[in-house]
Amino acid sequence: MSSQLPETHRALELISTEEPLQVKTFQTPQPGPGNAVVRVLAANVISYSGDIYNGKRQYPFPKPFVPGSNAIGRVAAVGPDATTLTPGQLVLLDCTIRGRDDPSAAILSGIIEGFTEGSRKLMHGEWRNSSYAEYTKFPLENCIPLNEQHLLGSPSAGGLGYAAEDLCQISRFLVPYGGLDDIGLKPGETIIVAPATGQFGGGAVRVALAMGASRVIAMGRNEAALKQLSALSDRVVTVKITGNEQADAEALEKLGPAEVFFDISPPMAAGSTHFKSAIAALGHSGRISLMGGVRADLSFLYSDFMHRNLSMKGTWMYSRAQILNFIKLIDSGLLPLGQKAGLTVRGKFGLEEWKEAFEVASLAGTEGTVVIAP
Length: 374
Ligand SMILES: NC(=O)c1ccc[n+]([C@@H]2O[C@H](COP(=O)([O-])OP(=O)(O)OC[C@H]3O[C@@H](n4cnc5c(N)ncnc54)[C@H](OP(=O)(O)O)[C@@H]3O)[C@@H](O)[C@H]2O)c1
What we know:
CATH topology of the largest domain: Quinone Oxidoreductase, Chain A, domain 1
CATH class of the largest domain: Alpha Beta
Largest sheet: 7 strands, mixed
Radius of gyration: 21 Å
Helix content: 25-40%
Low-confidence stretches: none
CATH architecture of the largest domain: Alpha-Beta Complex
CATH superfamily of the largest domain: Medium-chain alcohol dehydrogenases, catalytic domain
Distance between the termini: 24 Å
Strand content: 25-35%
Bound molecules: NADP nicotinamide-adenine-dinucleotide phosphate
Number of helices: 12
Shape: globular
């Protein structure tokens, strides 16, 4: 079903990583089978966005294209095969677009074209443009319906009183939820999160609390950020990454044994000592989730893994089923957003202010969030 869409709309375009992004006028996409056109209200800005679009992170993507990320929007028009989505509905746009005939071919819309021939086909063709735009086209299955009345409704009327920019924080929680659900974090377990002082790392601490971990050991180098995390709950304790593998392992062991180690290291942490300290502190049958962006060959002691029955699992993003389960944590209030979660919106920027948005996001730490509101 199609509603009134403007003929044109504004969007941010990346022409090449060597030149600044530009706000341009585009034809508004039209809905077709299997997709919806959504009016973007607020799109998430990740801490290292600047380094993605200036080429420093060397993420592959087609050029030119409209960058973006997960976003909150309102359905403007839907294709003829939409069965429940209707214009006006509030949705979370999930940037993880997968091949319908091969879900392992995945792109992150607006961020990276993935690493297979199939995923590249998705981003060089139908799903080239993302959410730093007034209107964007997304697959129907990536438009996750949100309970607007409950989430945005005023607390005096029984709602949670969030704004669209608060809902964008779902993104920093969903990523660690994917890994934590994959390794089956259970209520009552002790988990080590490292590094915990970044945006997704800090998100992992909050998600682990909501999933019922009895103790969350937040590891990081930044003592001020660790202090902020320990203020979240008396179930959070902190251990500094000092660079001394043995000493840090002993500090962890005093708090353990831990059942789970969740790693969300950025590429720069490839040489960090925390991998081995955390693995050493796991109890028998400990589980390790790798979700970081490390591009390095890390070693481990084979016999140690075998004798202690350790297991390790990598996770890129999350599945649609995990999103639907995760939303229950938000709806129920078990995982709060915004001020209630110690998170502050540091900036809500227009499309023209993209540079400032990326700069503020890079400095926002574990407590700050930034959105682009086109
Ligand atoms: N698997 C997935 O689906 C997925 C999804 C999104 C992101 N990621 C990956 O997750 C990574 C982390 O995301 P984020 O949002 O938490 O990043 P972030 O906000 O940039 O934070 C980076 C974290 O890494 C720490 N760090 C940086 N250099 C370090 C080093 N040399 N040794 C130890 N710690 C170091 C920082 O601590 P300091 O404060 O001490 O600098 C901070 O805690 C990203 O870079 C990305 O590659 C994976």
